[in-house]
Amino acid sequence: MVRPFSYTHVVMSIGSRFMALVHHAHALDPKHPSVLNHLANHYFLQWIPLPGTVSVVRGSAIATTTHDISNDVVHGQLICIGDKYIAYVQDVSSRSITLDVPFKEVSRSGLSISRKLYDQMNTLASNAYHATQVKELRAESCYLIARGHHAEGKYQEAFGYYYNAARSMPSYAMPWYGLAQMYYHQNVLEKAVVYLEKTLKLFPDNTDVLLFLGHVYRRLGRKADAIANFRRVADLDPGNVDALIGTAEILHVSTERHEQLAAISAYVAAQRVLQNAMEPVPDGLHTNFGSLHMRVGQIHEAIECYGLALNQKTNIAAIFDVPAVTEANVTVLYNLALAYEKLGEWRASTGIYKAILETFPWYLDALLRLAVLERDVGNADKATTLLDQALAQDPTCATACLLQANMHFAKREWSLAQKKYEAVLGMKQPDGGMAMKNDPYTFLSMGNIFMSNIGEKGRYVKNMTLSETYYKKTLSGHAQNVYAANGIGIMLAEKGQFDKAKLVFAQVREAAPDMPDAWINLGHIHMAEHRFGEAIQLYQVSLAKHYKGQDVSVLLYLAKAYYEAKRYSECITALTKGIHMAPQELKLWYNLALAQEDFAVATLGETSASVAKSSRTMADVQRAISDLQRAQRIYAFLDVAVPAETSSKKAHQIEMDKVRDHAKFCHETLEKASVHLEFERQREEKRKADAENRRRMVMMLEDEQQAQLVAQKEREAALELKRAQMLKATQERLKAASEAWKQKEADHASKTVKKSSKKRKADVSDDEDDEEDDVVGAIPAAAASSPPPAKKPKATDDLFGSESEHEDDERETIHGTNVSPPREMDDKQHAELFGSDSDDD
């Protein structure tokens, strides 16, 4: 059974057969230009193994060899260590090779070493060039020679051969790519773009051309075109790490958050591709990834990436075991310290900065950050010493000088701060230039100094003019500087042009929503216009949005607005919060005492007429007395806390004479407070008595209403009972009447039967009488007209009349007149049957 070959074996087999045929052709015709070009291209791609092996250490540029190869390699030659690590030789000895860059992969030993035979390749291509007059073959020979020189770093010679190849055959695209590389190396990027775009027209899906053109676009600032090229490469070759990293690096520097998140996604994709391919992830990728996480605020993820770059796990508990600081990891360690500083882990960041300075005392960035940390924890003297060390190492370090100036500015040492800022403006660079002459930050700081000194006696107009001048200088060089625009708004507000100042501050707030200065200054303008509600709202928004409620200055502004709005309780709350944050600020204590004093006076100082109508209570008076007592204690504390030699207003912004006057006023007011307390006590007793009387009257009314309600319910119940009894009696009478009626109907039926039999007998008798009349003669008229005697009602007649219909008919038709029946029922009987119609019932 034949064992199937893999694709690699097949390709290698075909390549070997091809080269065998080329060598055979070269043996037949050693001067054939096409054969010579094929052999030159083969030697360009072929790595020739050198004897022995090498050992390399990660981070070191020295590779130890087991054999002497000093005769095989020379300075500037390209070598390959292992399978794919390529570097240039800087120096060679009998037992070692110095590389141009430190070894970046894992430390290993027993690696193979190989080199290129560029000399032999150049000889073959040159022979091919001279052996033919065909321009296509000559162009190919020039291109191969140019590639050799290019690989050896001989860019001038390479440029000439690339140019000759392109001139010999204008439609030959390969030299165009080489010329683009040469122009890129010469920093002539526009010409590089021209040749790359020409090449791309012939090979629109070539990933190498697309990738290279993307990098050139990036250098030219054509961000959209560069990203489009990188994404095109990623579509054609999803595993192309260079395209993913190129996209991430472009988006890395963006200030837009969505682009920064897209850069993170690109880095993650590149890392996944490398891991799937079992390739080591470069430390630079981890470092850039961590830096990007820092920019978007993902500090913990940044620390994790820096730990991967350092090949160790980093966490808060273990970071104090700082690894050995080397040139390879010093930048990563510095970034890691910045990340811990962002988290507030100053102990960890301080340890890293000190470790860096122990190994590299000249590392100014670590020295400056250490000075900033010392300044932030209150060690101003130590911070100043560190900044002096930085200036001693580098007198042109503007950052150190600016930090010192800012420290003087914070302590209101205007003259010292001004000297430092002027020193920055006059700093000379090693080449003799004045790089900081027009520094916008320094101009802005100088404007702030003169603006802060605007109240100095006799210098109001001059300081206003100087401040405005520096702000305009800043804007002339940087028109988008929102801080300078904010300064111009302050100048307009100081001149009383509030409408123009509002417009400037509104524009600054729109341009920089995260800048709190515009919000606060708008609040100041509303305060000047006595629109305290709007000022309070602006201060609250700024405090919550920009400072998370933790800025003492903004709390002081907010307390001032509450104070002017007579909202003393909220003013006291704001000042108390500020004191909890900065108990060393004496002005907070003074303002708190003043607010408590005025709150108490506003409560106790009401006139008798207003007190009688107000809602003031004894609890309010008691609180006012407590506030006065607290204010008195604070004034006493300030009298002791402020030393006599520094008790001027300039030192602590507190006039001690006023403090003593307020303390005296509190003492006098407390002596008179008993009158108010007694008055409120009496009012409280009277209010309680009135309330008790009202409560009793209400209870009496409620009892009366309850009694009436009970009586009403009892009457309704009695009436309901009587109606039920009457209904029951009526039903019983109706039942009895119904039974009697049925009995009488039965009797009536029997009587009717008897009467019918008698009537038949009577009819027979009448017939006999008629016969007799016919015989005897007619009866006289007088006798016929006399009525018969009336019939008496029988005892068996019903209550409703006679039971005989025949008898009723006879009574109604005697002599043609109607005779009313006698009234059989009286009213008493009707009432017994149907109930009385009386209103009483």
The count of strands amounts to: 8
- Give the DSSP E fraction (strand runs of 2 or more residues): under 5%
Quickly give the CATH architecture of one domain: Alpha Horseshoe
Q: What is the assembly state of the chains in this entry?
A: single chain
- The CATH class of one domain is identified as Mainly Alpha
Helical content band: 55-70%
Q: Superfamily at the CATH H level of one domain? A: Tetratricopeptide repeat domain
Instruction: Write out the strand line-up for the largest beta sheet, numbering strands in chain order.
Output: 1-8-4-5-6-3-2-7
Global outline: flat
Based on helices, strands and strand pairing, what is the structural class? mainly alpha
Low-confidence stretches: 1-12, 771-825
**Rounded to an integer, what's the Rg over CA atoms?**
58 Å
Kindly report the average pLDDT value. Answer: 81
End-to-end separation in angstroms reads: 130 Å
Give the CATH topology of one domain: Serine Threonine Protein Phosphatase 5, Tetratricopeptide repeat
Total of helices: 35
The biggest beta sheet, please? 8 strands, antiparallel
